[in-house]
Amino acid sequence: MDTQLTWYGQSAFKIVTPRGKVLLIDPWLSNPIFNNAEQEIASLKQVDHILITHGHHDHVGDAVEIGKKTGAKLVATLEVADAIVKHLGYPAEQAQADTVGHFGGEVTLLDGEVKVVFVPARHGSGVAADDRVGLRHGGAPGGFVVTVRGGPTIYHTGDTDLFSDMALVSRFHNIDVMLACIGDHFTMGPARAAEAVKLVAPRTVIPMHYGTFPVLTGTPEAFERELKNRKSEAQLRVMKAGETIALGKDQQR
User: Fold this and answer.
1) C-alpha dihedral over 98, 77, 79, 49, to 10 degrees?
2) 239: which residues sit within 8 A by CB, 6+ positions away?
3) What is the bridge-based pairing of β-strands 114-120 and 127-130?
């Protein structure tokens, strides 16, 4: 069985491993461009882990509801996990040291089928616990390098600007699929995202974090032009919200 990847819009993805284990990353399923959120959340009977890159509401999203429903363990940096537990109510027993880590560290999940490395990002990470209180400190933002045994290595950038240390990701990992934010305004736009792709050198790049709100003006078309301008060898794969693709051997190194 191939690894399955679903994009829900914004930065929300589902990964289903060859053994049928389920991981969600930044699960804001109820975002404006995914119309079947209620049905999809109801259908999620099994979720093994929820990975959160940072504390902003469009990334924590529906994590607490899904975590309580499924018993999914939280994968996040120490401060992000602490903020989500204390301020948003994620079950503390599902956010323990076996799945919580920090930048440069790696956690091994699902009897070794999945490994996750915590990598930095350039952004913020405030947690919106209460509109009257405003943002609470939520640690530092990050991304993930997710390696699936018998499957691909996936780099989810989280929300970030371009920064030169992205090149270090490819020194330690051969990235098969890069999930790159392109929307501009709150993250890097198409030009800077294309430069990030050059640094990371993935086999395939999938754009995310665009089109959700009018201020996110970056588009896949502009991103494609910028990739061509830089003579990037990465294959661009544009997904539709709710679409699932198989990441087979042809998309792995």
Assistant:
1) -60
2) 7, 206, 245
3) unpaired
Residue tagged 């990701």 (tokens): 169
Say if CB 6 and CB 244 are below 8 A apart.
Answer: yes
- Of 94, 102, 239, give the one whose Cα is nearest residue 177: 239
Query: Is 234 within 8 Å of 197 (Cβ atoms)?
Result: yes
How far apart are alpha carbons 50 and 59 in whole angstroms?
Answer: 11
Q: What domains can be seen in the chain, in order of their start residue?
A: 3-248 (3.60.15.10)
Residue in the structure block whose two tokens are 């804001």: 28
Q: Which residues of 73-101 are buried (b: 16+ CB within 10 A; e: fewer)?
A: bbbbbbbbbbbbbebbebeeebbeeebbb
The amino acid at 87: H
Going residue by residue through the chain (253 aa), what tens digit of pLDDT does each one get?
899 999 999 999 999 999 999 999 999 999 999 999 999 999 999 999 999 999 999 999 999 999 999 999 999 999 999 999 999 999 999 999 999 999 999 999 999 999 999 999 999 999 987 766 678 888 999 999 999 999 999 999 999 999 999 999 999 999 999 999 999 999 999 999 999 999 999 999 999 999 999 999 999 999 999 999 999 999 999 999 999 999 976 667 6
| pTM of the predicted model as reported, rounded to 2 decimal places | 0.97
**Separation CA 41–CA 14 (nearest Å):** 12
> Do residues 206 and 223 touch, judged by C-beta distance below 8 A?
no
Round to whole Å and give the CA distance between 103 and 117: 7
Task: Locate the DSSP E strands across 18-65.
Answer: 22-25, 49-51
CA nearest 178: which of 148, 144, 216, 211? 144
Give the C-alpha separation, 53 to 150, whole Å: 24
